[in-house]
Amino acid sequence: MTESHRQAVQCSESRRDPAPAGRILGVETSCDETACAVVDAGRHVVANVVASQIDIHQRYGGVVPELASRAHIEAVNTVIAGALARAGLAPAEIAAVAVTHEPGLIGSLLVGLMAAKTLAWVWGKPLVGVNHIAAHAYAASLDAEPLDYPAIALVASGGHTALYRCAGPTEIALIGKTIDDAAGEAFDKIAQLLELGYPGGPAIDKAARDGDPHAVRFPRPLLKGQSLDFSFSGIKTAVLYHVRGVPGSEPQRTLADLSRRQICDIAASFQQAVVDTLRIKIRRAVEQTGARTIILGGGVAANSALRTAIDAFGHERNLAVRIPPMAYCTDNAAMIAGLAWHDLQAGRTDALSLAATATVRH
Ligand code: KG4
Ligand code: ZN
């Protein structure tokens, strides 16, 4: 047998029989972060590299999909090489290649998926496709103790706001979702209205520290009955009318009519309305599912008022509250590589024909 034959046999064997444990390289490009990470045994983050595109999208006040795809193409090889270098590993020491293949911006997803497929093929490693939202619900396990299931997970980001019942890392079921805007989207739009900057979440979070959360009473929508769905467009409109005046019945105002103190009060009151809504839905979800653990994930989980409110609720009900550190709340590849380990252990891998899917129906 020649050396190249032997390598080919080893490659096909490793595809059939993935290493049950080990280091997985993950790639994440679903939105506006180009990310690659290496995670050992599903939890221990060996390297975590993220190239942010915030500078590119900032001037538009939101993510421009075409610019995002192009920036991913430019960054993806450097980010992957960076993660491998930081991990100090050769490709042979990687057990599998994991990648976000759904949901997300289709052009952005395709860049990471093609990169991951290429690596899996060239290195002769199994490919594992990962759902981005399931990965956010798993992120609290990274560099931490395993989660105590059953759990409920609130995943709130710029594109999603949803509640899941989690029986295990890969067994998650949707139990509530937004019927209009995502929570992060509402933060971004209100920050834009108040001219606080982009991304809006951190800007509102900061301004709210100098404001009174009870200064203005904004609505807390969809609280009737036992619904676990969310709606943020009503809060958004209420803030808009508060700032500019109700069209047709009030004189129209501009932001220049408000003092810095009033802007901070509006930011704090808006944040309080969102946090109260999320807390009440979480309480209902816990009561309806009998969960022992509350998991937060997604960029909005970085919000300081939300973290404080959910920590207090968990304490009151004697429930574990698991909120990842900032780096694992926002988009990252460590959560992708971590979750993929559970798939790999269960023998679930994907073919190189794996497709990218922009939206996932539940
Ligand atoms: O998960 P993520 O990084 O990307 C998406 O998949 O969307 O979430 C980004 C979102 C943005 O809307 C951003 O404004 C929001 O998370 N965000 C926050 C905070 N930090 C980021 N929202 C509220 N408070 C924060 N501190
Ligand atoms: Zn995300």
Quick structural gist:
Residues 1-20 have low confidence and may be disordered.
Q: Indicate the CATH class of the largest domain.
A: Alpha Beta
Q: What is the H/E order?
A: HEEEHHEHEHEEEHHHHEHEHH
Tally of helical segments: 12
Strand content: 15-25%
What is the typical, i.e. mean, pLDDT?
91
Q: Which architecture of the largest domain would the CATH scheme give at its second level?
A: 2-Layer Sandwich
Shape: globular
Helix content: 40-55%
Give the ligands present.
5'-O-[(R)-(carboxyoxy)(hydroxy)phosphoryl]adenosine, zinc ion
DSSP strand count = 10
Given as residue ranges, the uncertain stretches (5+ residues, pLDDT < 50) are 1-20
Number of domains: 2
CATH fold-level topology of the largest domain: Nucleotidyltransferase, domain 5
Radius of gyration of CA atoms, rounded to a whole number: 22 Å
Strand pairing plus helix content: what structural class? alpha/beta
Strand order of the largest sheet: 3-2-1-4-5
Instruction: Quote the distance from N terminus to C terminus.
Output: 50 Å
User: What is the CATH homology-level superfamily of the largest domain?
Assistant: ATPase, nucleotide binding domain
